[in-house]
Amino acid sequence: MELERDIYQKLLAWKARCSHKVLELEGARQVGKTYILDKFAKKEYKNHIYINMVGSSGTDFLKCLEMSVSWEPGQKREKNPVYKAFQLYEPDFSDNEELLIVIDEIQESPAVYSKIREFARNFRTHFIVTGSYLGKTREKDYFLSAGDIETLTLTPLTFSEFLGAFHKRELYEAVSLYGDSDHAWYDELRSYFKIYLQTGGYPEVVTTYLETKSIRECEAVIGNLIRIFVRESARYFESPLGLEMFEKIFSSIAATLLKEKKGTPDLTTDLTKIIFKEESGRITKKMTNYAISWLYLSHQIGYCSMSVDCSNLDLVDNCRYYFNDLGVAGHFLKLTGEPLSVIEGVLCENFVYLELVRRIRRQEIAGQVPWFATDKKTSGELDFYVRSRIDNRNYGLEVKRGKNQANTAKALLERGRLDYIYHLKNTYGGISGKKYTVPLYLCGRIPFDLG
């Protein structure tokens, strides 16, 4: 069963630019990187070569690379040993723009990763490198020339992609943001959104739901994906204790989200204190910080920063964590034993966070990560604050919340700290002055150009 992914159009745009920069495709394990690249290579190129650095093809290529760079005194030096390596690996190799070379799990070989500059500068052939644990390449043994690479990130399926699997994407794109369409359309989309909150967007999970219509079966797949991630990470950690920390950190992140506090200036210290309760001091702040960084670089979690009084210049970095998949988030939130209604509220907030991350990647809103905001005057909190790069106006986003948060947004609007407010709720929508109510599941379509 094939799932249509929006990133395919970005791959086409990269090919059309013909910049000769190597494309690095990032993304968590099992989001479909290998599948989409195989489809792209077969459909868009006359020839392609696939090398997996954890498979026999990777072992064979390393032998070819070693042979091509070997040299004895008195011998003539090879002018382009990497070119020679590909000739040894594939006797019919011909350097041209209709050939795509995909190198998967490239983090397994510092020697190959360090050749990216040569791939970009010495070949007409197009190159894509990818891997599920590219965080490993941030270490000193890996050399990368930033000017020779472009980066794309493949995430779990977005809600709009998820709807595409049910042939409902056109409905998502057509329905009015503000309640002007047939209410039956909103009700139908809301029913799919409830499923998405529970399944998330990993392709295997979505496919499982399409085949079985069973949330329980999906939860089993999610649990297995988490276990595989933890087990595979063992290759990159010297201390077994570090591996034990992963699920504890996931659970601790779920706990911090459920507490609904106003962030913390030191997330690592906060999580370490939670973990200490179970580990009796075996885990240090340094160990926690390293494990959190691994989760971030492996695209398992993301950060949110705090804006003081809705200022785009007064920020406290990385004050809150969110999960990069709602299915994984739900798995750990349910382990806390909190009521499902409370868990759903947190998942809705996490959903909006992920949609804002996509807007940042499209350069529609400011920041390197999404922001939430605090208001000193009311001691209140705004779920999300957005500074538009399109009209340079300030937008406040409230996510299915009660009176206290709504009053904070209203006060910020009245004082001119906000220009517009979006209330994201499970309603049909409406407009009242500068306050816009939009169905929560349509937040991926809200405009930030009202000014």
Task: Note down, in words, how this protein is organized.
With 451 residues, the chain is of the alpha/beta class. The protein has helices at 7-17, 33-44, 56-69, 81-89, 110-113, 116-122, 159-165, 169-174, 183-199, 203-212, 215-233, 240-259, 267-279, 285-297, 326-334, 340-361, 403-414; strands spanning 22-26, 47-52, 99-104, 126-130, 149-153, 301-308, 315-323, 371-375, 380-387, 394-399, 420-425, 430-432, 435-439. The protein folds into two domains: 7-153, 3-Layer(aba) Sandwich (Rossmann fold), CATH 3.40.50; 215-445, no CATH class. The chain has 17 helices and 13 strands. The strands form two sheets. An eight-stranded mixed beta sheet has the order 7-6-8-9-10-11-13-12, with helices on both faces. Strands 2-3-4-1-5 form a five-stranded parallel beta sheet. A hairpin with a 6-residue loop joins strand 9 (380-387) and strand 10. The longest helix is centred in the last third of the chain and has 22 residues, at 340-361. The protein is globular and about 80 Å long.
Comma- or semicolon-separated keywords:
alpha/beta; Rossmann fold; 2 domains; eight-stranded mixed beta sheet; five-stranded parallel beta sheet
Distance between the termini: 43 Å
Strand content: 15-25%
Strand order of the largest sheet: 7-6-8-9-10-11-13-12
The coarse overall form would be: globular
Number of domains: 2
Uncertain spans, ≥5 residues at pLDDT below 50?
none
Order of helices and strands: HEHEHHEHHEEHHHHHHHHEEHHEEEHEEE
Structural class: alpha/beta
